[in-house]
C-alpha cells in the first residue's frame, strides 16, 4: 500500500520539479535577453537620435542572422515560459477570489510580488507578441523605422504599458528565482528586494528616455508605415 502511494506520488513530484527548473531556466534566459535588448535599443541615445550606433548594431544582428533566427526563438521561449508558469495561475473566478482573499490576509511582500508577476505575464504575452510580430515582419531594423512606428497610431501607448510591465516582471522574476532556489536568504531578502526595485526604476528610466528620443528627436522613415502589416494600430 505504502509503496504504491509513493510510486503514484513520485512521478508528478518529479515532473513538477522539472517544470519548475525549465520555468527558471527559460526565465533566466529571458531576463538576460531583456536587459541586453533594452540596452541595445537605448543605443539610439548615444548619438542623440542620429541612429548611426543603433543602425550599426541592428545591421550586425541581421547580417549574422541573429535577429531573423533569434526573434522566433525568443518568441517560442516566451511562449514556453508562459505555459510553464501558467500551471500555477488561478484561471477560474473562485480560484482568483481565494487567491485575492489569502493575499490580502497574508499581506506578505513576496505574495504581492507574485500577483504582480501573474498580472504582468498576461500583458507581456499579448503586447510582446504584437511588438515582436511588427518588428520581425518589417526588417531591417533601423532607428528611422522604429521612430516611424513609435510616432504612429497606438504604438507609443503600447510601449508605455509594455515597458513598466516587462521591467517589473524581469526584476521581480530575478529576485524570486534567488528566493526560490535558496540563494537569497531570509536575512538578505529586504536588501535584494531594494536592489531589484532600484534596477527596475533605472531600466524604466532608460526605456522612457529612449521612447522620448524616438518620439520627438529621431527623424522617421516616411515610407515605412505604408509597409507594415499593422499600419493603423
Ligand atoms: C529578437 C526579438 C526582438 C527584437 C529584434 C526587438 C526589437 C526592438 C526594437 C527595434 C525596438 C525599438 C522600437 C521599435 O522598433 O518599435 C524595441 C523596443 C522595445 N521592445 Fe523589443 N525586440 C525584441 C523582443 C522583445 C520582447 C520579447 C519584448 C518584451 C516582451 C520586447 C519589449 C520591448 C520594449 C518594452 C520596447 C520599448 C523600448 C524602450 O522603451 O526603450 N522586445 N524592440
Approximately how much helix is present in the residues?
Answer: over 70%
The secondary structure category is mainly alpha
The overall pLDDT, averaged over residues, is 89
Task: Work out the count of structural domains.
Answer: 1
Hetero groups bound?
protoporphyrin IX containing FE
- The shape is elongated
CATH topology: 3 helical TM bundles of succinate and fumarate reductases
Named CATH architecture? Up-down Bundle
Percent strand: under 5%
N-C termini distance: 61 Å
Q: Can you tell me the CATH superfamily?
A: Fumarate reductase/succinate dehydrogenase, transmembrane subunit
Residue stretches low in confidence (pLDDT < 50, at least 5 long) are none
Helix-strand topology string = HHHHHHHHH
The radius of gyration is 21 Å
- State the CATH class: Mainly Alpha
How would you portray this structure in words?
- By secondary structure, the chain is mostly helical.
- It has a single domain, classed as Fumarate reductase/succinate dehydrogenase, transmembrane subunit (3 helical TM bundles of succinate and fumarate reductases, Up-down Bundle).
- Helices cover 78% and strands 0% of the residues.
- It contains nine helices and no strands.
- The chain has helices at residues 2-41, 52-63, 66-86, 93-106, 109-136, 143-150, 155-180, 189-217, 224-227.
- α1 packs across α8, α6 (143-150) packs across α8 (189-217) and α7 (155-180) runs antiparallel to α8.
- It binds protoporphyrin IX containing FE.
- Protoporphyrin IX containing FE (HEM) binds next to α1, α3, α5, α6 and α7.
